[in-house]
Amino acid sequence: MKKFRYIIAIVTALVLGASCAKLDLNPLSQASSENWYSDADEIVISLNDLYRTYLYGMHVEYWTDRRTDDWAQRDQVYEICNGSVTSTTSTFITYWENSYKGISRANRIIEAIDSRYQDDPSMIPFKAEASFFRAFLYGRMMLLWGDVPFYVGTLDLDEAFKMGRTPKNVIQDQVMKDFQYAIDNLPVDNMVKGIWRVNKNVALGIAARFCLNVHEWEKAADYCKQVMDSGAYSLYYSSSDPADSYGELFRDKTMNTEILWAIPYSFALETSQSIKSWVLRTAGGNNTAQPSWDLLAAYECIDGKPIDESPLFDCHDPYKNRDPRCCMTFVAPGTSIYGVEFNPEPSITTTLKDGQLVKNKDNKTQDQYAAYNSTCLRKGAQPEWRDPIYSENPWIMLRYADVLLMYAEAKCEMNSIDGSVLNAINDIRARAYGVKRGDADKYPEITETDQTKLRRLIRKERRVELAWEGRRFFDLRRWGWLEKVYSIHYYGHLNATQIKAYYAAGNWYWPETPQIDEDGFADFEPMFDKGLIQRYGLHVYDPKVELFPIPNEDIIINENLLQNPGY
Question: Against a cut of 0.90, is the pTM above it?
Answer without folding.
Answer: yes
